[in-house]
Amino acid sequence: MGAVVTLLGCPGADGSPSSASTGGTDSSGVGTDETAADETAALPPRTAATLVDHTMWTIVEADDDPLAEHRPVDVDCGVTGAYVEGLGLEIDTGACNYLSRQQPTLADIRAGDMIEVSAFHETLASIEPGQAHWAITLGSSVLWQKFIVIPASPGVVDATPFDDAIAIDVDIPAGTPIGLHLHNHGYNTWTLLHVDVVPPEAQ
Questions:
Q1: Can you tell me the distance from the alpha carbon of 21 to that of 107, in angstroms, rounded to the nearest whole number?
Q2: Which secondary structure element, helix H or strand E, spans residue 37, and what is its range?
Q3: Does residue 90 sit in helix, strand or coil?
Q4: CB 182 within 8 A of CB 103
Q5: Which of 7, 55, 89, 114 is buried deepest, with most CB atoms within 10 A?
């Protein structure tokens, strides 16, 4: 079952909250509501679209980290810790003690859309018990997250796929920052495959 996420709306050009039109007529005398309806009807149906390009993730510094409360004093996550592998972004926590990456979303999101997240981790193990935290943020809000308890060795967490859908109830323009966060104890491998927006007509 998909969760419903409420995110802050976008302000108007002057910084004030945007407001819906109350109708009226344009210079031709045609009702603006009727004109808007005609224009909407003429638009082709929307299709599912990807929100991220795995080659575009950039490092988030401490001052801009939306989940900075989890951030260690020393972050060590270079090119061998997070890299594009096949169709996904792979994170090796043996070479990345903390991941915080960000990029602008590639498509508009509208109220009523679903955001689909596809990801997985390989077998998780740790010498000492710990907890993994995997999250995706949209703007300053957490869109999706998993907390996974990792037992001390020889205990393990089996490899697990995630295919989740999150319902969105506000409009979010393309270019809004989307972030990826991961930290855990142990030498483990995680992969984010895709984050897609799916409009109602494509569900």
A1: 24
A2: helix 32-42
A3: strand
A4: no
A5: 89
Residue type, 15: G
* Neighbour-count burial of 78, counting CB atoms closer than 10 A to its CB (0-12 exposed, 13-18 middle, 19+ buried): exposed
Quick one: 58 exposed, middle or buried, by C-beta within 10 A (0-12, 13-18, 19+)? exposed
CB 182, CB 99: distance < 8 Å = yes
- Token readout for 182 is 């991961």
Proportion of the chain above pLDDT 70, given as a percent: 80
- Tell me, letter by letter, the H, E, C secondary structure of 38-88: HHHHHCCCCCCEECCCHHHCEECCHHHCCCHHHCCCCCCECCCCEEEECCE
157-196 residue pLDDT tens:
999 999 999 999 999 999 999 999 999 988 899 999 999 9
CA pair distance 142, 94, nearest whole angstrom: 25
Per the prediction, the chain carries an average pLDDT of 86
